[in-house]
Amino acid sequence: GGWMHMFNPKLSVEPQDLSGKVCIVTGTSSGIGTETARHLYEWGCHVISANRNAEKTAKVHAAIEADAKKRGLTNVGKLEGRTLELSSFASVKKFAVSFLQSGLPLHILINNAGLVTNHYEETDDGFEQVLQVNYLSTVLLTRLLLPVLKATGTSASKARVVHVSSIFHMSVGMVTEDIDFDDLNGKHFDESFRWSPDMARYGQSKYLQIVFSQELNKQLQSEGANVLSNALHPGMMITQIIEAWPQPFLFCCQTFGPYMTRSIVEGSYTTLFVATHPSIQAGDIGGEYFDHAAVASPLESTKNTTRQKKLWVASSKAVGLPVSLI
After folding, report:
1. Is this structure's pTM higher than 0.85?
2. Which residues are catalytic?
3. N or C: which end of the chain has fewer CB within 10 A?
């Protein structure tokens, strides 16, 4: 596990037959999200791109379709755009209700969208925007879509929830202080981690995703649901997210980037592996953290069961959902 994965050799991806499958991917209008949608579509999946900008989504979809046509691919799926603004709980609810009413099945949910900012700002819901976009809204979206995920999954082919986290979750308790359950907004980082409170908040949001994924998987298992939840680190890439980071960090990335980062295309491979590879089903793998398309070790503290339950309760309250899954 750990940081050395930055220096790993090339990854490859194994195409799967996804005809008849439906997948929701958040944040497909750029970076890893676009490449994730592209592969799923080329493998026959009905991909629902959940983005805030419908115009951008349409452009990306048109480019993906044109490219597939040019390459003579025939077994493609379908690309569909639906509006989702993760900085608004109302938008998340609207998206979920509309999807549940569509009558479509849901085989895979990929929580890919991510935000990094360079200043502290709260949403209309009263939460710091990185916490809400990267974490709380994915909790809300996932929980609201569980009925259709549970209805779609079978013991022979379980539905999957995939959380695109980051190796930067390792900053929690190592570089920055540990989680403060009384201040999940991370306002305290402005004082305690002055050189980059925004990176501290980003790292924390990615950490929380891993803790949530483990607890979610446990709860689904205990009620016998045919749904698996896993988290992953996609690899280091120079994407728009990295470009928003502090100058010294950006300088290092741009200088050494070619030696330690993966291409954006490769960046989607671990997501695609966790979302589609048969070995996940065969091994009934859930509650894990992947890096480089293999099970890896997240920070030990993410596995603390007391912490998992505590976060589950706090998150449920924050998004206005009952603590119980049923």
Report:
1. yes
2. 202
3. C
